[in-house]
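SEQUENCE AND FOLD
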Amino acid sequence: MAINTDKNSYTFIFAIIMVVVVGALLAFVSSSLSGTISENIRLEKQQNILYAMGVNNNDEGSVEFISTSEVAQVFNQYIKKQLVIEGDQITEDKEAFLIDLKKEAERAKNGEARRLPVFIGEKEGKTFYVLPMLGKGLWDAIWGYVALDDKLVIQGVFFDHKGETPGLGANIKQRFFMDDFTGESILKNNDIVGVKVIKGNNDPLNNDKLDNEVDALAGATITGNGLSAMLSDSFKLYENYLNSILVQ
């Protein structure tokens, strides 16, 4: 008996079958790729932490990470300790770099202790304290890593974003902007204040490293304000730990 494909019931049943089949295929693909996605996240975080420390393959003007084939080995070579601050407790955790800052912020909102990762690295006889951070730009999340020395002077940064405007706010991940942070102190009158992104700060070449300011990106005021807030808020979270570095 021929099937009457003109009936509404046929269309309805066909649509249900297609939804089930496509859903099953998507679930299978997602499950198959979950291991690869997780590994890519691990490698990307390691690359970003190392980049902030100045361990990268940059040439003039470009942003070049340690290759994915080498980064795990290089990460273990330069990162000597991974710490987790949880309330008044500080513990070591070899996978602290996998802590999800967004989930930790939700934990804090629910009254739970937030876990804060710290990465202690060594390069050329110098100790680096690398802090991860998360904030909000114009359109979506922004995040980054800031490497400090024992005087709380920035030694390098890496910033990234989810959906900032190309050519404007998206430039927070460009060398000409990130390099301006190197050498900036996050202290002012012995207080931890961070670094602000300021429009027209009268220091376009960023020669003044004690003003707690870098020059803003053209046409990206809201993204710059979000980055300033991210730095200030993140350093406040780590304030007790950072003060302990100063008295070592």
The mean pLDDT is 89.
